[in-house]
Amino acid sequence: MKIVIAGAGEVGCHLAKMLSEGYHDITIIDSDESRLATVSETMDVLTILGSPTSVEVLRGAAVDKADLFVAVCPAKEQDVNLVSAAIAKKLGARKVTARINNEEYLSNDNRLIFKDLGIDLLFCPERIAASEITGLLHQSEMSEFMDFARGRLQLISFKLSENSPLVDKSMKDMYDYPLESPSFRIVAIARGDETIIPKKSTLFKAFDLIFIIARQDAVGKITAFSGRQDIDIRRLVILGGGRIGEIVAREFSKEAEFIKIIELNKARCAVLAERLGDKVLVVNGDGRNSDFLYEEDVRTCDAFVAVTSSSETNIMACVAARKMGVPKTIAEVENLEYISLAEEMGIDSVINKKLTTAGRIFRFTLSDKVRTIKCLNGSDADVIEYIVNPDSPITKAPIRDLNFPDGAVIGGIVRGSETIIAVGDTLIKPYDRVAVFALPDAVKKVEKFFT
What mean pLDDT do residues 380-400 have? Predict the structure, then answer.
């Protein structure tokens, strides 16, 4: 697949790196020569210096032959993304998508305007990250989750505490617990830098991050395996008053009793106070100072969310909050190398904009039968939802006889009003919606079963 990426910022570079592993033909356009130099040093891609809004530059990048055009210039260059995406479509790019920072554009009515311009998908990384954080506040015992078919089937992940009943037990022991059978399936274990597709003999260890696909009615029972208690979050403190912090505060204020935002920039504090009104207390201060956090009574909150522009600040602030006794901590960590470190330091959930955004775009590089895809934090794997073609190979035999790739596992199926957890003798039928957990080198192999 030929892919043209406009923007060599953090999101564009991560996306290029991820897509280059799938042997795509990738071209990156940017007007900043130093950013392109960094890309050239680390990736085998074609780089073009120039403005993505220039028709001449776009023609030079051969967008007329592009299967996918992705406009991901930094957030301040939103107009560049919209213009370049619209031009690329007119020049012949098959699918185009653009990064934006204006939530107004994402309303159903306004989406149609951009659809008429030929832009297939608009996405806002900050909005995606904020939605993930809000979801984790609702499901406080989980590290990550994903819904299929409006929640009837769910992928959940949580870290095993030392008190978990699963520690030193095997997969077989977990299935022997008194749950309806089959109501769930363990699809992976993340242990350190390794992602394991488990067997029945695989033993669980304390601090393992386990990924489970489950029917909605089994989720509550399964999360008891984590050894943690669900928390009713009523008091929330947010460190960082950028777009993510503002969206989380606005959305969660509908149900929280108390929300406080701590923001270092005084001018931004004034803007937040005006926009959020009396529902949210905005405090000017430096969250890097643990004494300040203590004085602001962080220890009495149910959850602490750190979403400043600094991954280091977010990690250390969450560690400090954890030591003060805060039950739930969530950190935005944009440095991918820090994600495992943050989890090892006891942070409950880690959010990464690059990963969440990449999942949205990655879907366009797969078949038209891919409904959703998510790149998972704490693991180098993806979870993909397929809609099954009538004549696809996946329908030809029970799962155990398909020779399905070793680096992938079918977790669950939604068939009409029925939700099924996949086992060896399950036969997948046309038009089923199938949830697959796959390591990177297995994604293309899995794709062949659904074409």
Answer: 87
Say if residue 132's pLDDT is above 60.
Answer: yes
Per CATH, is 235-326 categorized as 3.40.50.150? no
- CATH 3.30.70.1450 assigned to domain 131-226? The reply is yes
Token pair of 229 as six digits: 């208690």
**pLDDT tens for residues 185-239?**
888 888 877 888 888 788 888 888 888 888 877 777 777 776 666 678 899 999 9
Res. 178: pLDDT tops 50? no
- Which of 157, 119, 11, 129 is closest to 73 using CA atoms? 11
Within 8 A by CB and 6+ apart from 61, the residues are 4, 27, 29, 48
How far is Cα 291 from Cα 349, in angstroms, rounded to an integer? 24
- For the domain 2-123, what is the CATH code? 3.40.50.720
Is the pTM for the entire model greater than 0.85?
no
Tell me the torsion sign for CA atoms 279, 281, 287, 293. Answer: negative
- CATH 3.30.70.1450 in the chain, residues? 131-226, 362-449
CATH 3.40.50.720 segments of the chain: 2-123, 235-326
Identify the bridge partners of residue 46 per DSSP, sorted by sequence position. 27
Strands 209-215 and 68-71: unpaired
pLDDT of 331 > 90? The answer is yes
Radius of gyration for the alpha carbons in the chain, expressed in angstroms and rounded:
22
Fold of 362-449: Alpha-Beta Plaits (3.30.70)
